[in-house]
Amino acid sequence: MKVLKKAALGAVLVGITASTVYAAVKPDDAIEYRKATMEVIGWNFGPLGGMLKGKVPFDAALAKRNAERLEYLAALPLEGFPPGADKGEKEKTTAKETIWEEPDKFKDLFEKMGSESAKLAEVAASGDEGAIKTQIGEVAKVCKSCHDDFRVKH
Amino acid sequence: MKVLKKAALGAVLVGITASTVYAAVKPDDAIEYRKATMEVIGWNFGPLGGMLKGKVPFDAALAKRNAERLEYLAALPLEGFPPGADKGEKEKTTAKETIWEEPDKFKDLFEKMGSESAKLAEVAASGDEGAIKTQIGEVAKVCKSCHDDFRVKH
Fold it and tell me: Best of B33, B43, B53, B69 to disrupt the A interface by mutation (most A CBs within 10 Å)?
């Protein structure tokens, strides 16, 4: 119990401190960072989307590896959206104002990206092509849902 | 033993397949991806470098979190340097030709980044400010060493 409480406190402290540290960054830097996180996520989703469409040879091991990466990466972009980083001077952003208006909904979608990717990693370990492709589709739905609600169309 | 062998084989297979998948990408896409990975790494190293210079308040929990991230992230950039991605048409690269001439040395430095970051995460868990700052310096040395040898000055 003591350990758990300490760990929980540690998480809260990291949360607060990280927010403080990252809220102090320039909007342009935050925009550049969050774009980079989405680029890295896109690179890792790419072959999975390709498998779903039949454009990349099916590969359960690669699906598993990239799904694990997506689960991890889902936790990274959020701190790139601190208060005030809805507009930059140099960096163009495709982030909608709705991100700062509905932060909980936005955060939930990243959590869902993480949980659906974790599920994909599990399914991928089974090697079942049909089940893997179905679950890739579930991850893709989360991506689309978030882009529809929170990203300017381009 | 059987499990270990299978895991090792899986890693090799993923390596081969991932190389095949990612070697087929356009140089511009590879350049954009690897730049994004370095941006995400830089964002996470930033507060650590700041702590070392006294520009960011010392925070052992944040140091631990970011060190763990750096350990993970160290494995991501390499596939952004496939054969042929030394030049792009649109994307500017600051990658030196030496990356493709001395791939093992380049790879070793990313492994060292991972191991020194892992050590930082361990040291950070102790909360010892002096030891943490010393180890942040060790991680910084790896960054500098790789940039000196493999990145065009800018």
Answer: B43
